[in-house]
Structures are given as structure tokens and as C-alpha cells.
Amino acid sequence: MIDTVTTAMAELSNRRTPTSMNDVWMYPLPWLEEPSHRIFVGEEKATLSPEAAARIKKLQEFDLRFLEEQLTWKDGYSDTLAHECVEEYRKWIALHIAMHDSEFALAYFSGRQVPLGMPSRYIDNAWHRHILFTRDYTAFCGAVAGRMIHHNPCTRRNIATMNSSATQKAYRILFGDMPKIWNAHESFLASANNAGCGCGCSGRD
To answer: 54: buried, middle or exposed (CB in 10 Å: 19+, 13-18, 0-12)?
Structure first.
């Protein structure tokens, strides 16, 4: 155990400090530079208000590497898995920003702000790790979303709302196809420990 922690700390100490937005966000989003605030993913187009586009761009600026450290040290994730979890968690927050945007909701969800179900235990675990830093998470939500993004665990009372179809649709509109990690459960990288909610959860304002 000591050797594992020592190795992890050595790897973290060798990581270089990010020098650009693209170093912080694994997946650069050039569409945010469009003056019309339209998102381009392949041949598809999606609309966001200027405010929502600015919020998502601000989301890129946050250094969330401490969450990668938490996932490697406390959950036994590899550096690669931890990084992917955190970057996809960042996109999860972006989905909430978009869904709360009236222009996006009107264009794709008949004007309704549909609850977003979380299909991935790995990304959910990254979310849990962030929430444990209560002050940081509260400030983060206020800065990028303008409101608290609450975690809504699955129970027998609300299991009907844990539908990930809206999450999948919004993700395709904004980012294209979902990586496999979004559909990951026990069968995906089974050697990694995870602390997901079990049957799923959702985010609500």
C-alpha cells in the first residue's frame, strides 16, 4: 500500500502545470469561439445562448486535477481512467448548463428543462468526490452555472426520473458520440473500485 501511494505521489509531482485551456480540458471545444454561439459537431448544429456558451467556456478554466488525485489515491483508478472521469464529469456539468438554457431547451426539449440521469458509475464517482469538498463544489457551481447543481440519488420514490435518454441526447448534440465510460458499470474496468449510487442518480437545480 505504501509503495502504491508513493508511486502515485511521484507521478503526480511529475505532471506539468497546464499552460493553456486545452491542457486543462482534454477535449478542446473550438465551437465556443463562434461569434453566433452555435455549436458545431460534425455536420450538426446546436444553439446555445451567449450566456450559456460563456459559462461552458468558463468551465474549461477550472483546474480539477485534485479530483484526479482523489480518484487515484482513494479509488485505485489509473491516471488515465481518473483523467477521463474528470474530463467527462466536466462535460456532465456542461450538460446541466445547456439544459438550463432556455434557447437550448426550446430547440431540443420542447422548452422543458428535463432531469438528466447519470448512466456512468465512474463519472458519478468523480461527481461524488467533488461534492465532498463542499465549499469548493458550492463555489464551482455558482461560478460556472450560477446556481447549485444538486445530486439526487436514486431511491424507490424517484427511480422513474432516472432516465438517461435526455443525457444521451444532450451529449450527442453538444459533444457527439458518448465514450464507453458513460455506459460503464461493473463490467467496465472491473479492477477499479467505484462508489456510484448503485442504480443511478440525477442532477437537479
So the answer is: middle
